[in-house]
Design a protein that fits this description.
By secondary structure, this protein is α/β, with parallel strands linked by helices. It has three domains: 3-60, Alpha-Beta Plaits; 72-152, 2-Layer Sandwich (GMP Synthetase, Chain A, domain 3), CATH 3.30.300.110; 178-278, Vaccinia Virus protein VP39 (Rossmann fold, 3-Layer(aba) Sandwich), CATH 3.40.50.150. 26% of the residues lie in helices and 27% in strands. The chain has nine helices and 16 strands. The strands form five sheets. A four-stranded antiparallel beta sheet has the order 3-4-2-6, covered by helices on one side. Helix 2 (72-80) crosses helix 4. The longest helix has 13 residues, at 223-235. The radius of gyration is 21 Å and the shape is flat.
Length: 284
């Protein structure tokens, strides 16, 4: 199934008999627009979606019915009143990052961290909470997070129809790069050969293969990220399109095969001469 971001008035229309099955699928691929209400008619159900989805009847709604937004921070604060001091109440984080069912918080100045994390997990329906104690570090882009609540930080994060499995405590995932990940699935052509020099868990490799149907050679140096890259290829049924390669891209680059080279790393200039080796005579 391919997806295309297309606006906020779109809705998938299905017969009532198929409603539960389709709803489950839309939630699974992250396509449901939860800011709007589901509309139930006599024989059909309209599910608000974020983009067009192949295989379903999609309409543009003339009237938008907004859902009442659940204010999670107010509920978190209400539950913690009387359980922690006023100073700590004032320092409760109003922003967070949620990857699948794992939450990342900054908890500077909070002493009762486990108690606070448990409430955040309950309200936001997460199994674990990590404290961001130092951002992202090193060439391998490892997060400096500490587990405060829960048993582990492994999760499956669904974005643009793609499943990303990873351990949030060990692997960086930039939620701010969602538009770039969506774009990468659109710029490649079907059958194009791509080398992804810094593949990670498949940030760009997965959308290029899943949506663009490109043939991707995904190189990753971090063994932990490489483990999840292989799992994500299987999870998204892309074994025939993505070849994972463990090692330093300067040593593992495949020469003269690529129509396109992807270098999703900020300090990539020193790697440029190696990237050129991978290109065909006419490549990008």
């Amino acid at each position: 199934m391919s997806c295309m971001k297309d606006g906020s008035r779109l809705a998938v229309v299905v017969e009532k008999e198929r409603a539960e099955e389709v709803k489950k699928r839309l939630l699974e691929i992250g396509a449901m627009d939860e800011s709007r209400r589901i509309v139930r008619r006599e024989n059909f159900v309209e599910f608000p979606v974020k983009w067009r989805i192949d295989g379903y009847k999609v309409i543009e709604q003339s009237k938008i019915i907004e859902r009442t937004v659940f204010p999670p921070f107010k509920e978190i604060r209400r539950r913690l009143q009387g359980k922690i001091g006023m100073d700590e109440l004032k320092k409760l984080p109003r922003k967070w990052e949620k990857f699948g069912n794992v939450l990342v918080l900054k908890m500077e100045g909070i002493k009762e961290k486990e108690k606070v994390a448990e409430v955040y997990a309950s309200v936001l329906k997460c199994k674990s909470v990590l404290e961001d104690v130092g951002g992202i570090e090193g060439v391998e882009r490892k997060p400096n997070f500490k587990l405060i609540y829960g048993n582990d930080a492994e999760t499956i994060h669904v974005e643009n129809g793609i499943k990303y499995k990873f351990d949030v405590s060990k692997i960086m995932f930039s939620s701010g790069n969602i538009d770039e990940r969506i774009r990468m699935g659109k710029i490649v052509r079907k059958g194009e050969t791509v080398i992804d020099m810094f593949a990670g868990i498949g940030y760009f490799s997965l959308p290029m293969a899943f949506h663009g149907r490109a043939k991707v050679y995904a190189i990753e140096i971090n063994p932990v990220a490489f483990k999840y890259l292989k799992e994500n290829i299987k999870l998204n049924k892309l074994e025939n399109l993505i070849t994972p390669i463990l090692g330093d891209c300067r040593e593992k680059i495949l020469e003269g095969i690529a129509d396109r080279i992807v270098m999703g790393y900020l300090n990539s200039i020193p790697f440029f001469k190696y990237a050129l080796k991978g290109l065909k005579n006419e490549g990008i």
